[in-house]
Amino acid sequence: MGKVRNMETLELNDQPMLCSGHAACPGCVEAISVRHVLATMGPDTMAVVPPSCMAIIAGPQPFSSLRIPVYQPTLEASAAAASGLRRALDSQGKHETQVIVLAGDGGTYDIGFQCLSSAAERNENILYFCLDNEGYMNTGAQKSSSTPHFAKTGTTPEGKATRKKNLTEIMAAHQVPYAATATAGYMQDLVRKVKKAKSIQGFRIITLLIPCLDGWGLPDDAGLTASRYAVESGAFPLYEVEDGERYTLNHITRTRPVSEYLALQRRYQHLEPERVAALQAEVDAGWARLQRQVQMSAAEAGASA
Questions:
Q1: Does residue 189 lie in a domain region?
Q2: Which residues does 149 contact at the CB level (< 8 Å), separation at least 6?
Q3: Residue 285 resides in a domain
Q4: Which of 90, 156, 215, 305 has its CA 20 to 30 A from that of 245?
Q5: What is the CA radius of gyration of the chain?
Q6: Is the pTM of this model over 0.90?
Q7: Residues 87-134 pLDDT 10s
Q8: How would you list the strands of the sheet with 239-242, edge to edge?
Q9: Which CATH number covers residue 157?
Q10: Between β-strands 98-104 and 127-132, what pairing exists: parallel, antiparallel or unpaired?
């Protein structure tokens, strides 16, 4: 038998914030991710949830599986709706109430991006969670600009011809107070980042990788495994960027090739060896670029100390 890892206990709110009976698929990583996000945020929180898998999970108004107030705007308007909600609460003196967004990659990377960029430029005091399942999974697994290179989707049956957009780097270029990546396969890291983001004022964004069982072609019990493999291969690095300048890499080693991550998923079963090698080269280049950012920010911090 293999070694059993030491498990850390997560100290979270005992009262469930995402109730049982919600409409998530069996084994859905989004449900377990949001459950821990909400438990960390606490009950004094209001959520903006645009059309997405999360809107289905939450339930149609006036019903909701979330034990906090939920506002469902149009798909493109999440960041603007959250900005308005934040200002309304501030005008009532409710400065401690947290305003969060729970949006998918389609409503973040694509349709809602202009709104997101504007909120980041204004440094609105909101915490934005992008629940990134790398496609429009709620409507048939069509590709988004978050879909990785060569992945097969409903609209790219031979594989997507372009690379995945790097949202965290784009947000870092806005010099927002906090931008980070996280995933439920590394739950302690996820909860720590939510706590940290909660304590910061201004615009904050955390992109959560959400392996989609149906859209990626995974067994019902393989979502967290895919999440861990994404990190361990470097396909989805865990890192933080503060004020657009200070980079911290949270999982510093890669312990498996990208091919093992791809082999879990039906959306990559069509790939020929040369394309697998091309994806490995892309991941290697991205990892090297991220390491340079970490090293430069560490050198700058040392020089200014």
A1: yes
A2: 159, 160, 161, 162, 163, 164, 278, 279, 282
A3: yes
A4: 90
A5: 19
A6: yes
A7: 999 999 999 999 999 999 999 999 999 999 999 999 999 999 999 999
A8: 70-71, 45-48, 98-104, 127-132, 204-209, 178-183, 239-242, 246-249
A9: 3.40.50.970
A10: parallel
Contact 283, 258 (CB under 8 A): yes
**DSSP 8-state symbol, 27:** T
CB-side neighbour CA atoms (13 Å) of 62: 0
Task: Determine the structural domain holding residue 237 and report its residue range.
Answer: 29-304
Q: Per the structure block, which two tokens stand in for 27?
A: 């084994």
Residue among 26, 70, 11 nearest 45 (CA): 70
Residue type, 140: G
Contact 103, 49 (CB under 8 A): yes
Domain annotation covers residue 158 = yes
Distance CA 126, CA 160 (A): 33
Domain count, the chain: 1
